Amino acid sequence: MLAERIQQVEERIQNAACRAGRKREEITLIAVTKIFPASAIREAYELGLRHFGENYVQEFAGKRPELGGLSEATYHLIGHLQSNKSKIAADLFQVIQTVDSAKLARRLSECGHSLEVMIEVKVSGEGSKSGAAVEELPALVDAIRALPDVNLTGLMTMPPWSEDAELSRPYFRRLRELAQAHGLPHLSMGMSHDLEVAIEEGATHVRVGTALFGPRKYT
Ligand SMILES: *Cc1c(COP(=O)(O)O)cnc(C)c1O
Predict the structure, then answer these.
(1) 189 C-alpha to center of ligand 1: Å?
(2) pLDDT per residue over 159-195, tens digit each?
């Protein structure tokens, strides 16, 4: 079941990359495992996936002890991070994709883990609650680059959700332009329903939950 879904997502990524004249290796598939148990991460790892995205620090802290032995796994925090949880997040994740303030970046840098970070950008203005505003980006990029123990590699965004993936395109394009303007190589954008559009617009990281694990049942 999971094996088939991975295969389907893999084909979607390859087809989109091919259409866009890009190489498959330029795109990292991040399996989004929020709400799902540690066993889902382990199963996906055994089927070859290596990058995992989690939204909630506490939730992942509960799963982490069950994930021993997955030595090649990289864990990405893709949900909002409060600066008072930065220490525990720095211990759990190798990549923090949702940095949205200089204060948070400073806190993460103080943990001394040589973390990879991305800035979450609010490209839509309305809708999304978290993320740095586009106008704040130049100063934030400078502030993070001046810090010793965080390595700023890219931008991340989540456009307003829509059934129609094409509606995500202008937001993805905007993120790519912003990343280019700041010389940032990574673009984390695109989810289950709009990953093709994201790849066409230059995504280097797609974050896929539902298409791999099925619908999330919140209790
Ligand atoms: C849940 C989530 C995803 C995955 O969404 P799907 O539609 O299930 O693929 C991707 N990115 C973020 C930030 C998320 O919170």
Answers:
(1) 10
(2) 998 999 999 999 999 999 999 999 999 999 999 999 9
